[in-house]
Design brief:
about 475 residues; alpha/beta; globular; binds adenosine-5'-triphosphate; binds 1-O-pyrophosphono-5-O-phosphono-alpha-D-ribofuranose; binds nicotinic acid; nicotinate phosphoribosyltransferase activity; ligase; glycosyltransferase
Length: about 475
């Protein structure tokens, strides 16, 4: 079945499109940027994600006769039809003509810098706005949550278990992929594994144990069936008794030349129980049997359990990861920053002024330079206008407080945005769209952050600023628009 992404939008995008088409305004070239304003989860970074989905959206974007028939059926509130038949006829042959640039998935990103740049006829740019924000906002949020959870786990593998609690099937699919981009070693979501090439993993449920006359026979049956990846859930009735039964089965497996891979504890005081389990397993000689913990975990409970010295081999994290439990949205926006009349070469700055400094937009056709210290840690991000370039003094100015400035001259840098779509065609090859490749990039990106930016409590704020000349230009434009310059 087609995804029908062309209709996965707010109605006003389509009514504006008809207006643009009718007035001839639709041919005006526009530049939009998607960005977010606040660090998710009160953290110190975010993990860019959702661009594979965005590429799929662009690939599939076409209005069918069925779409046109549906739109033709919509009544205008005051009477008559909402859409003109000539416009719907135009949509039938419409092809997107946008250029889209974004950082590679898995790149570490920060508030107030462009996460996606879209350029093309203004009508085209707006027709994709809602669906673009839908996938980039959600996936960036979940990839960031996953990175936080995995950092808290200190390298022990985290399996994503959230599908059953995710926000619908679509949310579950994207959450599983984004969780792996953010660092999860695997997902329990089989369709996501198939569709996105993610490692899948799993243990067994309490129902397996409950369906047998007793726990020991349930464990024995499971070990017979899955001798190569046997993780036994020990908390169906009594954890201590469950561990003893697992030990019995583990020793039987050893006699057959097999290994009990682990036990899973899914309730109670997980730190206390994990320590008890380790003592019992070691005393029985099963020192190579791992301990998997699950049950309503997130980065905070994982940190607390590890702070208590719990000997944990791996983690299963579901609900609080797949639903971004403590912050359900990233709040990313999509703002017009420049326009160009048909046939012209020069871009005209566009600015939205708001009483709140945080909501003042940035004009121009923007990109980001990421500067590095000699030791490989990142030093600061500069938002600059691609057409104006960067002045000789590589100074960034905090967009919310112009007194805060930082000189980045002489440091090594890279530019973050790279081509994803050109003239409506996806140009990023499949290899660069892989979730596992994005996971590697995310790991490297997290290693380039200072520890102070990764801590959970009041992390250090990373310097992101406007290039000095761009900041001055914005200041002048604000004055002009307010009639004070
Ligand atoms: N040592 C620990 N430190 C911090 N948090 C913990 C620790 N052990 C367990 N937790 C967390 O405490 C919460 C306990 O939740 P809850 O009371 O629902 O668990 P439970 O008693 O096992 O019941 P249920 O069977 O319904 O899951 C979970 O979020 C779990 O992750
Ligand atoms: O706790 P999460 O992070 O969401 O991880 C997934 C949970 O899903 C399963 O429980 P189940 O759905 O059977 O419910 P339960 O809470 O009663 O264990 C599993 O045993 C985990 O506890
Ligand atoms: O495989 C598991 O252990 C699993 C999968 C989904 C949810 N809870 C646990």
């Amino acid at each position: 079945m087609r995804n029908e992404y062309e209709l996965l939008t707010d109605l006003y995008q389509l009514t504006m499109a008809q207006g643009y088409w009718e007035t001839g305004q639709g041919a005006t070239q526009a530049c939009f940027h998607a960005y977010f304003r606040d660090y998710p989860f009160r953290g110190g970074y975010a993990v860019a994600c959702g661009f594979d989905q965005l590429a799929e959206l662009i690939d599939d974007f076409a209005f069918t006769q069925d779409d046109a028939d549906y739109l033709a059926s919509l009544d205008a509130p005051g009477g008559g039809k909402l859409f003109r038949p000539e416009f719907l006829e135009y949509l039938r042959t419409f092809r997107l003509r946008v250029d889209i640039d974004a950082p590679a998935e898995g790149t570490i990103v920060f508030p107030h810098e462009p996460l996606v740049r879209v350029m093309g006829p203004i009508m085209d740019c707006q027709l994709i706005e809602t669906a673009l924000l839908n996938c980039v906002n959600f996936e960036t949020l979940i990839a960031t949550k996953a990175a936080r959870v995995c950092l808290a786990a200190h390298g022990a593998p985290v399996a994503e278990f959230g599908l059953r609690r995710a926000q619908g099937a679509g949310g579950g699919m994207w959450a599983s992929r984004a969780a792996v981009v953010g660092g999860c070693a695997s997902t329990s979501n089989v369709l996501a594994g198939k569709r996105y090439g993610l490692p899948v993993s799993g243990t067994h449920a309490h129902s397996w144990v409950m369906s047998f006359p007793d726990e020991l026979s349930a464990f024995r049956a499971y070990a017979q069936e899955f001798p190569h990846n046997c993780v036994l859930l020990v908390d169906t009735y009594n954890v201590e008794q469950g561990i003893e039964n697992a030990i019995t089965v583990g020793l039987e497996m050893r006699q057959r030349g097999q290994r009990l891979a682990g036990i899973r504890i899914d309730s109670g005081d997980l730190a206390w129980l994990a320590k008890m389990a380790r003592r019992m397993l070691d005393a029985a000689g099963l020192t190579d049997c791992g301990i998997v913990l699950s049950n309503d975990l997130d980065e905070y409970t994982i940190q607390s359990i590890l702070d208590e010295g719990a000997p944990v081999t791996s983690w299963g994290v579901g609900t609080k990861l797949a639903c971004a439990f403590d912050q359900p949205t990233l709040g990313g926006v999509y703002k017009l920053s420049a326009t160009r009349a048909p046939g012209q070469t020069e871009w005209t700055d566009r600015l939205k002024i708001s009483e709140s400094a945080a909501k003042l937009t940035v004009p121009g056709v923007l990109d980001v330079r990421r500067y590095y210290h000699d030791d490989g840690h990142i030093a600061g991000d500069m938002v600059f206008d691609m057409n104006a370039g960067v002045g000789e003094r590589e100074v960034i100015v905090d967009p919310l407080d112009s007194l805060r400035q930082k000189n980045l001259s002489g440091k090594r840098f890279e530019t973050l945005l790279s081509p994803l779509v050109r003239n409506g065609e996806v140009v990023l090859d499949q290899a660069h769209r892989s979730a596992m490749e994005a996971q590697r990039r995310c790991r490297e990106g997290l290693a380039s952050l200072d520890e102070s930016q990764k801590r959970m409590l009041n992390p250090h704020t990373y310097p992101v600023g406007l290039e000095y000349g761009l900041c001055e230009r914005r200041r002048a434009l604000v004055g002009k628009l307010r009639g004070i310059a």
